[in-house]
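Appendix C: a fully annotated inverse folding record. The material below is reproduced so that readers can follow the format used throughout the book. The structure is listed first as tokens, followed by the designed sequence.
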């Protein structure tokens, strides 16, 4: 989704972010994601990580195919130190997997409706959800929070 066009209202910004999340998650490897040390010479150096969808039972009712054990990101190729990834960063990436997209997009859309209904006040006292999610939307949309 092209988010370069300028939005004109707070509600537009919130809805643009919701659409961006859904579009980005649509083709991504399904969550949840987990991290483990990348196999090879750098396996134990603390900077070589693989992020993957965990193993699942292929016969499970959640229909884990086709993403069962799919690698999302691998760093720390043998002999390569330019692609270091700290463990905390790997953990953060796992947390921000596509399972987060739909609930967050729904919250952003709810905030847009809240703003349209109550957002005429300059102090936003009646729009706490919109006020708290606007920095999130602006970050997703590529602007300053």
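Designed amino acids, in order:
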């Amino acid at each position: 989704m092209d988010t370069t066009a300028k939005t004109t209202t707070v509600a537009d910004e919130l809805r643009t972010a919701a659409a961006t999340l859904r579009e980005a998650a649509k083709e991504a490897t399904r969550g949840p994601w987990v991290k483990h040390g990348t196999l090879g010479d750098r396996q134990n150096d603390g900077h070589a990580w693989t992020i993957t969808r965990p193993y699942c039972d292929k016969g499970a009712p959640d229909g884990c195919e086709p993403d069962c054990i799919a690698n999302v990101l691998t760093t720390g190729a043998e002999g390569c130190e330019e692609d270091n990834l700290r463990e905390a960063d790997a953990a953060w990436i796992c947390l921000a997997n596509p399972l987060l997209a739909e609930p967050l997009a729904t919250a952003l859309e709810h905030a847009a409706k809240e703003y349209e209904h109550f957002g005429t006040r300059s102090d936003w006292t009646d729009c706490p959800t919109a006020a708290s999610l606007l920095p999130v939307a602006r970050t997703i949309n590529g602007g300053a929070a």
